[in-house]
Amino acid sequence: MNREKVKNEIRQYAESLAVCDTGFCHAGPFPFVEGIYRHRAVEGYACDFEQMENPLDKTEPARHLAGAKSFIVLAVPYRMVQSSKPKGTVAVKMAYGTNMLDYHQMVMPLLKEIGSYIEDAHGASWKAYCDISPFSDRSIARRAGLGQIGKNSYLIHPRFGLSFFIGYLLTDLELTEDAGDMEQAFADLDTLCGTCTICRKSCPNGAILGDGQINANRCISYLTQAKELDDSQKTMLNGHLYGCDICHLACPYHRKSELVLNALEASESLVPDYIEAEKLLDLSSKGVKDLLGRTAAGWRGRKILQRNAEIEHNKWN
């Protein structure tokens, strides 16, 4: 089997599905990433999304697919624009932009199409992942050559900046890789970010550590999704209902990518830029689902979203 030829065929097939960039890498273990997870746990930077009963489940792909050889990684860009924030409302991540459809619902069908293709063409076994995964998405995408890691922990794509979704297939199809391992990733900081500290200065809670990692327990994006918040964390939401794009929008690489991203076709606007906290608190479970069910925020459910809205509501009343 000519591995380069197969890669090109897969890339062409992905492009026919409107995937804008595709990378490939081996599916060997991630020992360096295992060390990062252990360091984060010791320092108190980790959140419950990072925890697993066996840490090796996060760093050894072969534990999830027998004979795993490769990852096929997709980069699917989206548009984002900044809006002003009125007093007494709650912001929804991705409501800043035109592409607010739940990215799991956007990317997973593309992965399944490609999975079916390699199964039919090469008899390959595969598993598809988008966000809900035991692995580190950025580590896999970095290994596959889709970008470099910035000080704010984002993977930064050379064309799309920070504005792209990551999805990937784990497969037993053996393919050549496109880039190096995560061991090289933190060397990215000097060449990619240099002395720039805009992201660190923009974060209201000081969650960005500046070494390619964040303290998740101070990060608004995580706190809006956490099952429990202590009193000090409740003061850190900064008016957000779900997620946060403050450091994303502040990053110079986001601004540099705007011309490329503006060329993307606009998709349907699903919800207003901001939602009145009082309105959200009055909604039933069905009402919350009707309002946010098609967005990335919808998966978290009524209880946590209304808790976040109540925190903002109480701030102004």
Structure, explained:
With 317 residues, this protein is α+β, with helices and mostly antiparallel strands. 38% of the residues lie in helices and 13% in strands. It is built from 14 helices and nine strands. It has a four-stranded antiparallel β-sheet, sandwiched between helices. Strand 5 (148-149) and strand 6 form a beta hairpin. The termini are far apart.
Set down the secondary structure blueprint.
Layout: H1 3-16, E1 21-26, H2 31-43, H3 56-59, E2 70-77, E3 89-92, H4 103-122, E4 126-129, H5 137-143, E5 148-149, E6 155-156, E7 164-171, H6 188-192, H7 198-202, H8 220-223, H9 231-234, E8 240-242, H10 246-250, H11 252-262, E9 274-276, H12 277-281, H13 285-292, H14 302-315
Parallel strand pairs: 3-8
Antiparallel strand pairs: 1-2, 2-7, 3-9, 4-7, 5-6
Which features characterize this protein?
317 residues; 3-stranded mixed sheet; 14 helices; alpha+beta; 13% strand; single chain; 4-stranded antiparallel sheet
- Beta-strand residue percentage: 5-15%
Shape: globular
Given as residue ranges, the uncertain stretches (5+ residues, pLDDT < 50) are: 93-99
Count of helix runs: 14
- Helix content bin: 25-40%
Strand order of the largest sheet: 1-2-7-4
Largest sheet: 4 strands, antiparallel
Short description:
The chain has 317 residues and is α+β, with helices and mostly antiparallel strands. 38% of the residues lie in helices and 13% in strands. It has 14 helices and nine strands.
